């Protein structure tokens, strides 16, 4: 199978290197800066198949800064009866031999033209915020004369739809009827698949087909992994419990449980973020965003917001509504109701007969809180799999729905297996004990993703 040479070309500062990073799943490739001429040389990186076959070589090129100068040169110093490729080659030869006819230094442009002439297909990156200036028309004229199939890719699409339409019109006039909107920073998996699809249509190269197929498979596996991470956390929390004697103040133990659970949830968020790190070059920013929009999991207000009903119909199997129950619980233990809100989400249920006999209470996280945690983690997973910026923008305004009305069986079962939990025992992992329940729950989560 043929290895495809793909050149990424465009005006300076349009996001060529950013696009490389996204396609390479490598946020450390090259240098990205909001200024001209950041990339100074052509840098090539190969994308391999899972069987180690080189599929596509991506060539990041310096920005075209003086396409108009190149066009002037071609116009003045090359034979108009020759075809575009010959004329571009004459230009390269002139630069190579330091022809005195070259008034300016075109070394940067020559690197780009050279990469273009050696490519099987090219992506032309457009900053759609820009008006259509004559320099861009000259860039397109160079691309057109190279005889290489070109796919225009619109970057910064979120910012200006109006100009995108103008660009589309102009490109059509140059017989470039297919173009693709692909914001390189706000990652969109389906948009990337479409990019490979277009490149496949332009070239009929099997390499793009394989790439698309394999990446889709990987993406699916990632969904499975993410769901398992969440499921394992939920099973771990559901089986987590602490015992206290009937007449002791439960407050310290409740606080201990809450803090331990909060920590586990944060660790899970971090695991999800690092799982999807390559899809979000701005994970740090995302992380901050999560912190600022995510309410504390023990905040009772969330129950209303997620539509989690704690008494009666909805959450069947619940003993009493969490909010009310905590108050009663607090009162029955001689605690002021005021701290009820602060210490919500924990129920003194699941007492065993043995507990009763020995006057011991078993405390664990209630179903409503498990639902809150599941809803939040699932939402984060969803955000990570869909448009980063776009969905983050709307996250705080949309009304959230709780992930389920009735707690799934594996979670319910987990409560009976207190030894499945390793929360609060940092040196011990009971993940293998939980594996069966976690896998069953992961399947439920994946279906809802
Ligand atoms: N918001 C947003 N910013 C982007 C996007 N793509 C690139 N940028 C930013 O645009 C600037 C230029 O990106 P680069 O990838 O360095 O552009 P380039 O085309 O390689 O630039 P040169 O190498 O100088 O030609 C950087 O500040 C990027 O962070 C995008 O899709 N959305
Ligand atoms: Mg660059």
What does the model show?
The protein is α/β, with parallel strands linked by helices and 449 residues long. The chain has 2 domains: 201 residues, Rossmann fold (3-Layer(aba) Sandwich); 231 residues, no CATH class. The strands form 2 sheets. Strands 2-3-1-4-5-6 form a 6-stranded mixed sheet, sandwiched between helices. A 3-stranded antiparallel sheet has the order 7-9-8. Helix 9 runs parallel beside helix 15. About 12% of the residues have low confidence. Guanosine-5'-triphosphate binds next to helix 1.
Shape: elongated
Q: List ligands, each type once.
A: guanosine-5'-triphosphate, magnesium ion
What is the percentage of strand-forming residues? 5-15%
What's the multimeric state?
Answer: single chain
Uncertain spans: 311-343, 348-357, 388-399
Q: What level of helicity do the residues show?
A: 40-55%
The total count of helices amounts to: 18
Mean pLDDT: 82
Largest sheet: 6 strands, mixed
Report Rg.
29 Å
Q: Give the tally of β-strands.
A: 9
Number of domains: 2
H/E element sequence? EHEEHHHEHEHEHHEHHHHHEHEHHHH
Question: Which structural class do you get from the secondary structure elements?
Answer: alpha/beta
Strand order of the largest sheet: 2-3-1-4-5-6
Q: What is the first-to-last residue Cα distance?
A: 36 Å
How would you summarize what this structure contains?
This protein is of the alpha/beta class. It has 18 helices and nine strands. The protein has two domains: 201 residues, P-loop containing nucleotide triphosphate hydrolases (Rossmann fold, 3-Layer(aba) Sandwich), CATH 3.40.50; 231 residues, no CATH class.
């Amino acid at each position: 199978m043929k290895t495809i040479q793909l050149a990424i070309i465009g005006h300076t500062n349009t996001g060529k290197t950013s696009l490389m990073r996204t396609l390479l799943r490598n946020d450390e490739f090259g240098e990205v800066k909001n200024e001209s001429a950041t990339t100074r040389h052509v840098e090539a990186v190969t994308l391999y198949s899972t069987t180690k076959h080189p599929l596509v070589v991506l060539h990041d090129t310096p920005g075209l800064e003086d396409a108009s100068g190149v066009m002037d040169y071609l116009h003045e110093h090359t034979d108009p009866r020759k075809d575009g490729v010959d004329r571009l080659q004459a230009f390269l030869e002139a630069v190579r031999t330091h022809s005195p006819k070259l008034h300016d230094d075109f070394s940067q442009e020559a690197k780009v033209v050279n990469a273009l002439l050696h490519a099987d297909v090219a992506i032309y990156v457009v900053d759609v915020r820009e008006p259509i200036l004559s320099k861009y028309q000259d860039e397109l004229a160079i691309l057109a004369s190279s005889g290489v199939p070109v796919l225009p890719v619109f970057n910064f699409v979120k910012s200006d739809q109006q100009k995108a339409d103008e660009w589309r019109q102009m490109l059509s006039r140059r017989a470039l009827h297919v173009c693709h909107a692909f914001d390189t920073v706000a990652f969109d998996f389906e948009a990337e698949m479409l990019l490979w699809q277009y490149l496949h249509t332009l070239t009929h190269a099997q390499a793009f087909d394989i790439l698309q197929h394999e990446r889709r498979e990987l993406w699916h596996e990632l969904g499975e992994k993410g769901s398992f991470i969440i499921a394992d956390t939920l099973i771990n929390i559901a089986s987590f419990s602490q015992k206290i004697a009937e007449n002791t103040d439960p407050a310290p133990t409740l606080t201990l449980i809450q803090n331990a659970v909060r920590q586990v949830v944060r660790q899970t968020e971090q695991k999800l973020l690092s799982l999807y790190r390559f899809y979000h070059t701005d994970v740090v920013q995302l992380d901050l965003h999560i912190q600022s929009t995510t309410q504390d999991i023990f905040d009772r207000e969330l129950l209303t917001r997620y539509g989690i009903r704690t008494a009666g119909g909805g959450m069947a199997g619940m003993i009493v509504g969490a909010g009310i129950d905590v108050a009663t619980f607090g009162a029955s233990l001689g605690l002021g109701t005021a701290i009820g809100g602060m210490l919500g989400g924990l129920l003194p249920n699941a007492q065993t007969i043995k507990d009763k006999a020995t006057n011991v209470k078993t405390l664990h996280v209630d179903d409503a809180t498990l639902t809150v945690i599941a809803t939040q983690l699932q939402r984060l997973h969803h955000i990570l799999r869909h448009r980063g910026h776009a969905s983050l923008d709307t996250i705080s305004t949309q009304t959230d729905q709780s992930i389920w009305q009735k707690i799934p069986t594996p979670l319910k079962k987990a409560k009976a297996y207190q030894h499945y939990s390793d929360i609060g025992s940092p040196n011990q992992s009971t993940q293998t004990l939980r594996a069966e329940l976690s896998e069953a729950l992961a399947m439920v989560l994946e279906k809802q993703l």
